Amino acid sequence: MTFNTQNNFDKANRFLIALRHCQVLGMTVQEAGDDTLVMVLPPNDNYIGNSTHGFIHSGAVTTLMDTACGTVVFMTLDGFELCPTLDLRVDHMRPAPVGSTLYGCARATRISDSVVFADCDVYMSEQCDADSLVARCRASFMRIGAEKSRSEFIDAIDKHGRGGAA
Amino acid sequence: MSHPMSSLVEQLHDAVPYAKFLNVGITQDEQGWVFVLPESADNIGNPVLPAIHGGVIAGFLELSASIELLLQDRARPIPKVIDFSLDYLRAAHLEDTFARCEVLRQGNRVVNVGVRAWQSDPKRPICSARVHFLWEQAPS
Q: Which tens digit of pLDDT belongs to each residue from A52-94?
């Protein structure tokens, strides 16, 4: 792992750890690149969308994609800049059976002065086989600037990173 | 107001464990069904504001749209989301969140549902969404 990807992995991890709902869901960052990451949603019976058929609810898949896009944006931008989500567009391609581990592969596709675009594909296999594609998401985020982002939240993420030995 | 709905909510939570996980409730007013995502610390994204995680709001709105359809025709299977588009309008604070749905077009197999969410003031929506569902006919 290069210095940069290790740094990015730590930064993405710190951000994710600060999001309580994602801790409840047990989400983790599996790997990080320059502007990409893989986020994992482990199996959990709470996400069942349909007791009769046993598929993961689309809402849980959307939560994974929303989080993966938000995290990859935070990770890719210099410093500690928070960007509120403007919108999400989601295609649910095939249902994921309960018990599947889901892998969200996210990328920050374009960073402009005002807006950041990101996307995320969710697979049932770690190898991201095309035939295990569950859902695809495109999201845009508003840049409010590093100054306005400075908050107790950022301080918490920052402190956690410096304090944590990982 | 919540009491007459409790058996309906129980049925929903039995059929859809994810609705139980988010503890989604159902109420009704003169304009129709109103779905409720009760305040819960477990739903927090940004812990400092504190704000509800955007993904929870998204899941709640997808769920609300499908419950609206199920309440319309309880004999049909649970609708499947094809695609979903969500605009975040304001931060979702840590308080009860409400959603109202409107079925804009119902075809033989595909249904288009609009959803709007708000918190303390219905005139200040926090989110607006549109969902396409594949909704098979009831087995004959």
A: 778 999 999 999 999 999 999 999 999 888 899 999 999 999 9
Asked whether the beta carbons of residue A50 and residue B78 sit closer than 8 angstroms, the reply is yes
> Would you tell me how many other CB atoms lie within 10 Å of the CB of residue A79?
10
Contacts for B105 with CB less than 8 Å, ≥ 6 apart: B111, B112
So what's the ipTM on this one? 0.88
Tell me if B84 and A90 make a contact (CB, 8 A cut-off): yes
> What is the pTM (predicted TM-score) of this model?
0.90
Which residues in B lie closer than 8 A to residue A64 (C-beta atoms)? 55
- CB contact under 8 Å between A95 and B15, yes or no, is no
Surface-to-core class of residue A3, CB atoms within 10 Å of its CB (0-12 exposed, 13-18 middle, 19+ buried): exposed
- Read off the tokens for B131: 């969902």
Report which DSSP code applies to B3.
G
| Tokens linked to A102 | 């889901």
Q: Name which of B81, B127, B134 to mutate to probe chain A: the one with the most chain A Cβ atoms within 10 A of its Cβ.
A: B81
